[in-house]
Amino acid sequence: MNRTAAVLTGLAVVLLSGCKVTVSEGYDDDWDRDSYTPGFFLYVGDTGDDFPDDSWSLDAAAEVCVDDNLYFETESGRVRVYGSSAYSETDFRAAATELERRIDGVLSRFQLRWPEFVDDRSTAVRYPDRLIGCLSPTVSRTEFASASVAAVSIMPYASQWPYDTDRIITHELAHYVQENLSRYQARDSLLPLWFAEGQAAVVAGEPIAPVYQHYDYDPLLDVTVYDATTADYRFEHYALAYDYLEEANGQLALTVLLDLVQFADWEGLDGTVYSGESEAFVEAFNAAGLVDHRNRYLSLERFKTEYHQLLNDSY
Do residues 194 and 222 lie in contact, with contact meaning Cβ atoms separated by under 8 Å? Predict the structure, then answer.
C-alpha cells in the first residue's frame, strides 16, 4: 500500500469514528413564496466584498457576476447573492431565500450541519463561511441553475422560474456541496459523472430506476459527459448506482468518501486512470472501506466489474 492510500485508509477510520454528527432529514418545504428571507442590499464599493474571481472555482455561468457591484445578504449572514443592478429586488430576495431555506435540508443528506460544512470545505475557496449565489443571465430557463465550487448560479427574473424550482435548487445545491467537500483546488470535478449526478438525484428526490431494470443501462461507464449516451433515463440509473452504495454503507460513509477525495487532491493526486476516473476518486473509493449489500469489501474495480451481478443479487 502506498503512502497516500495508507493515509486515506487511516483518515477514513478517523472520520467514521465520530467527527460528523447525525442530523434529522426533516425540513420545511412549505413556505410562502411571497415571504422572503430578511436581509440587506449592499454595494461592493462600500464593503470591499467583491464576487469571487478565482477561475478554478467558477463555471461559465458564475463568471458573469465577477464585475457585479451589488449583492443581497441574508440576515443570518450565510447567503449572499450577487447580480446586476438591472435586476429587481425580488430577483435577489427570491434567489437568496431559496438558497437559505434549502441548504440545511441538503446538508442533512450529507450528515452535516452548516458549521461542519464550513469546516470541511476547501479553505482555498473565498468566503468559506458564505453560500454565494449569482444571478446569471447565461443560465437558461430550461437549465435554471448551475453549481460550481464558489457559487450557485440562478436564472434571474423570478416571475419566470419553473414550477419545479425547489427540486432544481436542491439538485444544484447537492452539486455545490459535493464539489466543496471533494475538491481542494482542482480545476475540474474529481467525481465521475455517474456518482455526482446519482448522488444529486437521490438528494433531490428524483426518480431512481427500479432495481430489476439495472440491465437497461451501464451507469458506471459514464465517467464524463463525453462518455454518456443521450438516453434520458440514464439519470435514473446514475441514481440507482449511487443508491446501491448508500443503502449498503449509509449517507455518512459517502460523505467521508468525498472528504477523502479532497484529501487526495490536497496530496497532489491530479491524474486520471486508464478508465477515465480521477486518481483522487479511485484512491479515495478504495480507501473508504465501502462494502456491498452483503457487507463484503467493495473496491471501485469490483463495483464496476460486478455491478449488474451485485444489483441482481440485491433484490
Answer: yes
Q: How far apart are CA 265 and CA 280, in angstroms?
A: 6
**Which CA distances in Å does 211 have to 155, 221, 231, 298?**
35, 18, 18, 19
- Round to whole Å and give the CA distance between 221 and 192: 9
Give the residue-averaged pLDDT of 73-98: 97
Give every CB contact of residue 55 below 8 A, 6+ residues apart in sequence.
Answer: 63
Distances from the Cα of 218 to the Cα of 75, 163, 194, angstroms: 46, 31, 10
Cell reading at 68: 457585479
Query: Which residues does residue 132 pair with via DSSP β-bridges, in sequence order?
Result: 80
Contacts (Cβ under 8 Å, ≥6 apart) of 249: 290, 291
How far the first Cα of the chain sits from its last, in Å, is 35
Per-residue model confidence (pLDDT) at position 99: 98
Predicted confidence (pLDDT) per residue in 169-209, tens digit: 999 999 999 999 999 989 999 999 999 999 999 999 999 99
Q: What is the pLDDT of residue 5?
A: 60
pLDDT for the residue numbered 152 = 98
Mean of pLDDT values over 281-307: 98
Cell 483522487 locates to 280
Looking at residue 308, what is its pLDDT? 98
Q: Is 71 left (phi over 0), alpha (psi -120 to 50) or beta?
A: beta
H or E, element range at 45: helix 44-47
Q: Going from the N-terminus, what domains does the chain have, and what CATH number goes with each?
A: 3-22+192-313 (no CATH), 39-182 (3.40.30)
Which of 238, 251, 247 has its CA nearest to residue 107? Answer: 251
Sign of the torsion angle spanned by Cα atoms 133, 139, 141, 143:
negative
pLDDT of residue 142: 85
CA distance to 5, 31, 145, 197, per residue, from 69 (Å): 45, 30, 21, 33
